[in-house]
Structure formats: C-alpha cells, structure tokens
Amino acid sequence: MRTFDDEGPVQRGEYSRQPVTDDVVRLVDFYERATGTTASWSNEHFAELRTTSATLAIGSTRTVPLFAPGSARPADNHSVILEFLVDDVDSVHKNLTGFVEDFVNGPTTMPWGNRALLFRDPDGNLVNFFTPVTPAAIEKFAR
Predict the structure, then answer these.
(1) pLDDT of 11
(2) Would you state the CATH architecture of domain 78-143?
C-alpha cells in the first residue's frame, strides 16, 4: 500500500490529461494526425493516445455525469495548455501547416529554454509542442 511520504501521494511517471468533447471522433482524429499516435478506443465515448510519458484521454460529454454532473464542459478551457515534447518543433510546425487551423504562435524560443509552437485544437484547447534547445532545458528533459 502506498503511503504519504516526503514525495507526496502522487506517483512519478506516466500521467493522463483528459479533455471532454461533444465530438470524440473529430478530436481523436486531430490528435492522431498531430501526434502521429494511434488511439486505443475503449468505446465510442472514450479513447486514449499513449505517448512514452503520458496519455491523452479524450472523453465524450456523455462521460461527465460519471464524475459529477456539470463538472466539465467541452470547448471551454481557458487556463490549461496540453503540452507535448517533440524532437524538432520546427519540422513539426512544417508538417502541421495546412492541417492546424489556428496557430497562436509559430516556433518561438522561450526564456526558459524551450522552442515552443502554440496552437488550438478543434475544440479551442491550447496545445504546445516544444523542444528543449538550451543546455539547461536539454538536461532537464534528458531521457
């Protein structure tokens, strides 16, 4: 049994993010194409895209009452950014041009050492694909 210790109750390692949507197929198709990852479908209301470090779970609004009615609303995120570490953000930007409809910014080197590409998915969620480029950032994300 896991106990609360100096590191806290949250286990290190894989984690999941789960946007809810009115159109699971559309959002899953978008993320499959954007990430190059194939989704695993549990049923028509829920799919997961697994990367080496995290899982993007996409759930239908029909799943929300299972948590608590009204606890989440689709296409209403104004504070969370879904972030993905990529090998070469500039190449990814070229591949996404013509597919992504709403780029917030092109590849930009941030003060903390990541080169970042910010765009919106079809539901308006902010997505950041980033590549560490400074020595400190590269060391931080070393695999």
Answers:
(1) 61
(2) Roll (3.10)
